[in-house]
Amino acid sequence: MSVNYDVNLDILLEIALEESHDEMEVERAFVREMLPLISSQLRGGSADLTYSRTLSGSTIARFRHEALELDRKLSGFFEDLPSYTRENVYIWDYDNSKRYLTPDKLEGVFNHMRSYVLVGKLIPLYNISNELTKIRTAQILSYKVLDSRFGGESGTNWILENEPISAEHRPEFLRKCGIIREELVEDIQQIADFRNTLVHELDEMAELDDPEMLLSKMESCIQTIEELDELVNFPSHVRLYEENDLDDTVGIDIQELKNEIDTNEFEKVSEKVSEKLMREGIRNQGTYIHRMIATELEDDQKLIAMVNEFWNQHLADIDDEKRLVDELAKYAGTYARKFNINLFRRLKPHKSDFQSRFPEKVFSEDFIEIFDEIQEE
């Protein structure tokens, strides 16, 4: 007796949609965004401008994260469908008969479904991004074109409220002032154009069948916002959700904080959020400094000079060889993690400069290979 594996396409897509939205943790992401604003309002009575600006970027980050997660889950669901299911997917035809879909037709439906889900996240993402480009170009104009007596935050607000140069024309004006690249002007315009397509012409959007195109456009949008953030020296927050584990990255328990907010223990929440923000600020500054140092250390002589300084300050008085090797291993591990440099591989051609001080073991291939496995942080 044969088993009937027929499955209606509508039912299959309904299941796929449920699977892709399962465990999205949207509320948790929202709490992650709002905590800095909540903390600032509780401490000072109003939201700090830095936090207000952060909110736009972090909201863009959330929509991007959710779009990528939905597409990953949806793609995984379609890829995992067994072949007998694929071969027996049908729709009801006009004469009320079953019409089985060819593999190509089925893949087209799956791609359209992916695009349909992506667009649900791209519409708000592009709406916010389009508004953020207007704010950023006003800031750039205020900070880099206006006299310092009339620029700054108050100048930005004046530009946004009175629009002496409209948002539409600000990018080209800034290009003619030599402040932004021509490509960036085009990128900003593409955000506005695609936002209008999503909002006003979605029913005519023939490209909707191509999810890869939508994902590519989203990443281009994100890169444009990041570049604008950099031009106003603002730490970009449009990729907040690239971490594997938000709790570990934030350094605090999101659910615990949410419970504290619910029970009105606001002071404790405020303290923890402030601590978290300070820690992230230090980490970001540390990352910048590490990059600067790594660039400097591309020069072997500067690297040797830094190692010699470390030796004089911390290792010169160590007589025990095992302890010395252990300290050098820790030091080399720091270079591997922070600067992506295998210290003793770089120093080996110059080992005669260190031979009288460093144990021979640290220049052996077995020792050096250990640090090839350590990934940069």
From TrEMBL:
<protein>
    <recommendedName>
        <fullName>Apea-like HEPN domain-containing protein</fullName>
    </recommendedName>
</protein>
<dbReference type="InterPro" id="IPR037038">
    <property type="entry name" value="HepT-like_sf"/>
</dbReference>
